[in-house]
Design goal:
By secondary structure, the chain is α+β, with helices and mostly antiparallel strands. The chain has 3 helices and 8 strands, in the order βαββββαββαβ. Strands 1, 2, 3, 4, 5, 6, 7 and 8 form an 8-stranded antiparallel β-sheet that branches. A hairpin with a 2-residue loop joins β4 and β5. The protein starts with 12 loop residues before the first strand and ends in a 10-residue tail after the last strand.
């Protein structure tokens, strides 16, 4: 006996690739994402809130966070991470998803740390005393649309 696949309220989806400009614009329109980094040679995923500032992703972490110590060990260049954010309707499955790959570095300048402290309030209860900047090197994204509906081109 095979389980019947649930029917999506919006019908079948198709994927449309986003330009880098549109992907970053959409990423900046939400405040929650997931950071992916390596811990003990295995991928680790953490939900975090972020702000997009001048094309770079900024998050805050705490002293005991694995990402804080990992970024500190990365040296001047930082450590390779991936960052994903999306907005997908749970009923229709229409929406978008963006993935950024780049280097994460701890921000150590006290003025910058103070500035981001005012821009980015932590959603957790721990004291977020570290700030991490992710420089996007590879930006990919897709929009999930109803099958058969063309999306207008976005001017870059």
């Amino acid at each position: 006996m095979s389980a019947e696949r649930p029917r999506l309220a919006g019908g079948p989806c198709r994927s449309v690739e986003l330009s880098e400009t549109e992907a970053l614009r959409l990423l900046g329109s939400v405040s929650l994402g997931r950071i992916v980094f390596t811990r003990h040679a295995l991928p680790t995923v953490r939900p975090v809130n972020h702000v997009l500032d001048d094309g770079e992703i900024v998050i805050r972490t705490h002293e005991g966070a694995a990402l804080s110590s990992h970024a500190r060990q990365g040296g001047a260049e930082g450590v390779v991470v991936a960052y994903e954010a999306d907005s997908i309707d749970p009923d229709t499955h229409f929406g978008w998803s963006v993935v950024v790959t780049g280097y994460a570095r701890l921000i150590t300048d006290p003025g910058e740390v103070a500035r981001y402290r005012t821009m980015l309030s932590p959603w957790g209860t721990e004291t977020m005393d570290h700030t991490v900047r992710i420089r996007p090197d590879l930006v990919t994204g897709l929009r999930l649309t109803p099958h058969g509906i063309d999306q207008p081109e976005v001017a870059e």
